[in-house]
Write a structure and sequence with these properties.
This protein is an alpha+beta fold. The protein contains 8 helices and 20 strands. The chain folds into 2 domains: about 220 residues, 3-Layer(aba) Sandwich (Rossmann fold), CATH 3.40.50.300; about 110 residues, OB fold (Dihydrolipoamide Acetyltransferase, E2P), CATH 2.40.50. A 6-stranded mixed β-sheet has the order 6-7-8-3-9-10, sandwiched between helices. It has a 5-stranded antiparallel β-sheet with strand order 13-12-11-14-20. Helix 2 crosses helix 3, helix 2 packs parallel to helix 4 and helix 3 crosses helix 4.
């Protein structure tokens, strides 16, 4: 196990800056996930930690030691790639042992490590096969096993599940989480899939355009996003947003008016917003109550529905065309084109500044 610290990390390709001064501290034994949209810099950041990309400025520290000038092979890390990166002409056993052989490790020690990793990952029956004879999930287990046998200080995962089908991704998420529990090593995991981030991480770093927007525990980020970007990215389905203007404030309530003429009130103790301020009201799909159209805080016109048996999703628009999603338990029979009233859960609603997107929660 090891601590990992990033101090004011920058990365530029010529005149193009892609990482803009990232500071991050990952505790020993933590499972940290870098998550963000494509092009946000998460894989580049991981490769700089690994030593596969040079660092333009700043310091990468492992156990308080600056490793900027230390080669990738000597940092005590192991990386699992999206493409598996297995040698097709070698057996599974040879793929697992190859890196250790290059370190001139005794054959008996290599055999012990390979057998232990194969047992842990349940690939003992595959050791004589070649990668071309394996399924995607089996190849991923071998790729993880190749990292395990090195007994690294820190495991690095670069979108390791993106080539797998949906059902296998779910299973492999569980296997990687179980592996973390068994080994206790520090792990850094890159994904664009926020469901992976929420279900696997001890800590999440949400990245956008080469900067960390928020870093913390998954539910802290979900319940208390620092800005509209984080609120919209973390959570499935994405958070609904309604644009509004603060029309009145007093000691108890903030009243906001939407373009469609709806008036919505929130607790003034919870949020800090001024008169005439432009705001975005954010509410998740499962924090809504359906009522008759004339009793709702606003009216939603349903454009489509998804019946999944144990739950129902309603898709439509409110006000002047803002996309809106409602998630309800059970089987709710609402037809396309229906107009329904919607009431927000006041304790779960978020409020953001209309210009900066920063949370207005006190």
């Amino acid at each position: 196990m090891a601590t990992l610290e990033l101090k004011d990390i920058h990365k530029s390709y010529g005149k193009v800056d892609v990482i803009h001064g990232i500071d991050l501290s990952i505790d020993s034994g933590d499972f940290c996930v870098f998550v963000g949209p494509s092009g946000c810099g998460k894989s580049t950041l991981l490769r700089m930690i690994a030593g596969l990309e040079s660092i333009t400025a700043g310091e990468v520290m492992i156990d308080s030691e600056v490793v900027n000038s230390i080669t990738a092979a000597n940092r005590g890390l192991a990386m699992v790639f999206q493409s598996y990166a297995l040698y097709p002409h070698m057996s599974v056993r040879s793929n697992l042992s190859f890196g250790l052989e290059n370190l001139n490790m005794p054959k008996a020690e290599i055999a012990n490590r390979v057998d232990e990793a194969a047992r842990m990952l349940q690939i003992e029956d595959l050791l004589k096969r070649r990668p071309g004879q394996l399924s995607g999930g089996q190849r991923q287990r071998v790729a993880i096993g190749r990292a395990v046998v090195r007994e690294p200080k820190i495991f690095l995962f670069d979108e390791p599940l993106s080539n797998l089908d949906a059902e296998l991704r779910v299973a492999m998420r569980g296997e990687i989480s179980d592996l973390h529990q068994r080994l206790g090593n520090t792990m850094v995991y890159v994904t664009h899939d926020q469901v992976e981030a929420m279900t696997m991480a001890d800590k999440i770093a949400v990245l956008r355009a080469g900067k960390v927007e928020q870093y913390g525990k998954p539910l802290d980020i979900y319940n208390h996003p620092v800005n509209r970007f984080v609120a919209g990215f973390i959570g499935s389905p994405r958070m609904n947003f309604i644009e509004a203007t603060v029309s009145d404030t007093n000691a108890e309530n903030i009243t906001m008016s939407t373009p469609s003429g709806s008036a919505i009130q929130l607790d003034a103790i919870t949020f800090n917003a001024g008169h005439n301020q432009q705001v975005s009201i954010g509410v998740r799909a499962n924090h809504l109550e359906l009522v008759d159209p004339d009793k709702g805080e606003f009216v939603m016109e349903v454009s489509s529905t998804e019946q999944l048996g144990g739950e129902t999703y309603l898709y439509g628009s409110v006000g002047q065309g803002s996309d809106f999603t409602v998630h309800l338990p059970g089987q709710v029979m609402i037809e396309r084109g229906e107009r329904i009233g919607v009431i927000l859960s006041k304790t779960e609603t978020q409020l953001f500044d209309g210009d900066s997107g920063v949370s207005l929660r006190v």
